[in-house]
Amino acid sequence: MAETLHIDDSSKAAHYSSLLPQIKALCDGENSSIANQANIIAALHHTFGFFWTGFYWATDENNLVLGPFQGPIACTRIEKGKGVCGKAWRDKKTLVVPNVEDFPGHIACSADSKSEIVVPLFKNKDVVGVLDIDSDTIGTFDEIDKKHLNTLCQWIGEHIV
Ligand code: SME
Questions:
Q1: How many whole angstroms from 1 Cα to the centroid of ligand 1?
Q2: What tens digit of pLDDT does each residue of 112-146 get?
Q3: List of domains in the chain
């Protein structure tokens, strides 16, 4: 297992393109979902310098519960349809929120969170959880994040969950 991540920071796309294969390598041969989730979150969080990065997992048809994360303490449970996470789950789509204050029903776990992206995690055709990333800057996430995080989350759904 690689002990150091080597990131191409020439652009955001290059950052993702260099990081994603290393994340897959990091998880290769380890069958603990929790261990792999923890390392995936750490790799994303620290190489990008996000404010908060973590998983929420469905416990039943209506509730998400907090999973492995990095950043300040966060809300432990989110109902389906509530907040950005609950809406991404209900609508089965990635939500990019440039300014959380403009998102009706946004759940503010921290007043320092300014923008957010939430990506659903699919097992077969069902959403089983979400990846949630927060930034302390407005407008951090765009189509590049969406594209690469969708790819990562598809892989997570197939290999880690
Ligand atoms: N902002 C999220 C809640 C989770 S925290 O950001 C960690 C939401 O509106 O669903």
A1: 32
A2: 999 999 999 999 899 999 999 999 999 999 999 99
A3: 12-159 (3.30.450.40)
